[in-house]
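Let us practice reading a record.
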Amino acid sequence: MRNSTAMLPMAVSLSGALALLIYVSRTAPIRDSRAAFHKPALLETNQRCSIESRHDPSSLPTNSGNLSQSPRNANPPLQASRREISGAEALPGSSFIDFDRWTEKYFAESSDEARLVLESEGDSLAQARRRDLARVIESDPERAIRLAVPVNLRHRLPPSISRHLEERVSARAKYEVIGVLGIPEDPLPRTTIERRVTFKDKTYRAFVYGRRLQQTTKESIPIHGIAVGDALAVHESAVRALEPGESPDPSLAVGNRDGHCPVSKQAADSAVAVESGGEIFYLCRAGHIAAFSQALEEEAMLVGIDQDLVLAKGIPR
């Protein structure tokens, strides 16, 4: 009995310690050494994956409906979008951005001697740019047009450089759409569509986009674009708004010599000038450019339609 009485305080002491231990274990936060070790690394990995996914070209939309996405190990197609100097930006190291940087350096020089030294470098860069632009005209004509050197800039370049630039084309031209049948002996005969633009006894291989893809053969319609050799990128619009600071070409005839806006029939403003079909037109305000372009496009749709049918349907000439 004495031994049992002696052990009672010890049991009470042990049970109290156990209760305290249980209380502390329930209230104290559980620290997982493995989670503490891996959390910063996981956060860093997620951040890296997020950054890489934003820059992964395969996750971005293609820039042209004419080009399929290239595999990662293939040579990527030439790409470019808007830039301050040329009206487009290119991937680092491309001939387009290299030429733009050269023009910045060229115009930054104040002495004729320094500019003359730079001309030899500019000549090789302009030739490389021309070769690449010829490829872009065929693969993505819309982008090629955006890559064109602005009119004001090309007029300031020396002849040794400007001779390598793209040709500006604006005229009323014959537009042909030709279906080319495959050779019967070819194991995989294919039918392809070719387009040609002819004016002033010169024929170009035409590359189009937008509404021009549905345009049929026309005898004489207004077109404008850029060309390298016989490859012509045709703009989808019938009208080209002059660039900021660009003066109308004095060699081009004025299309509305009566001085009236072709849209509103009111007095035209000499500050609002557009180019179409190798002519300059003056409008009363810039807001009429789109309407003027639409009117020319509707007129072009009637080219080649029998005029008796046009009158019978009440379509204005």
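A brief commentary: Residues 1-85, 306-317 have pLDDT under 50 and may be disordered.
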